[in-house]
């Protein structure tokens, strides 16, 4: 028997969560109960048609399915299990969809705990940039049963243009974590190529333009490469170095659990840590090139 879905909830209205919730509100034609620790995004979404809530408990009392967009598994677990979380409510909720990038083991452990309380946890982390969240063109990787995937896919499609069922619980997180690992490693390689090319007297924009026409072409080259590395533009509130560190650390933990020596990923992780320590913790993570070029200048 299919689960009832007449109302939706959203917890976590940050850089990605707010536009995702906005798309869900506009396209689902269902009441969307939304909350965040900050009043401003709640108010903006209220003006756009969502129902702003003062607490997670209020969301859980009104929403059949709750979507989460939070920093890590620690916050996800607190929202679900905490004293003022979903389980603490006289809840209406039967399904929680975690759209954060979270630990695979943590996701599976939390799913087991929630299952015992009659709640289903589906992992559905997202990829692509902030603009894609506004445009509703995210790539969403889903972990859960086929039945669970079919249940939430129509709503995920309001937020993403590519919604992929990756397997059982935690599989969405596996795919997302490895996607990010490859992107960070590619940006590392691009930063090294840019530093070497400049040192050898070649213009960086020309170098990347030519590379984009050949076998080295990639999303990483055309977006963080040409838009950040070449102009040296590493703003805050984009995808900060500390977020990249969190994600690639999750990949390394997954590698260790599988007995894989991910040496190249470990080198990128080390560089990101040095980038954060050098004062770029909140800057867009391609700022790693500053460490590469500083290392070159020091020799």
Strand content: 5-15%
> So, CATH architecture of the largest domain?
3-Layer(aba) Sandwich
Instruction: Please give the CATH class of the largest domain.
Output: Alpha Beta
CATH topology-level name of the largest domain: Rossmann fold
Look at the structure and name the CATH superfamily of the largest domain: NAD(P)-binding Rossmann-like Domain
Provide the domain count: 2
Rg, Cα atoms, Å: 20 Å
Helix content: 40-55%
Quick check: average pLDDT? 96
What's the β-strand tally? 9
Largest sheet: 6 strands, parallel
Domain 6-phosphogluconate dehydrogenase NADP-binding: 8-167
Protein name: 2-hydroxy-3-oxopropionate reductase
Domain 3-hydroxyisobutyrate dehydrogenase-like NAD-binding: 170-291
Active site: 176
What structural keywords apply?
alpha/beta, globular, 3-stranded mixed sheet, N-(1-d-carboxylethyl)-l-norvaline Dehydrogenase, domain 2, NADP binding, 299 residues, Rossmann fold, 2 domains, 6-stranded parallel sheet
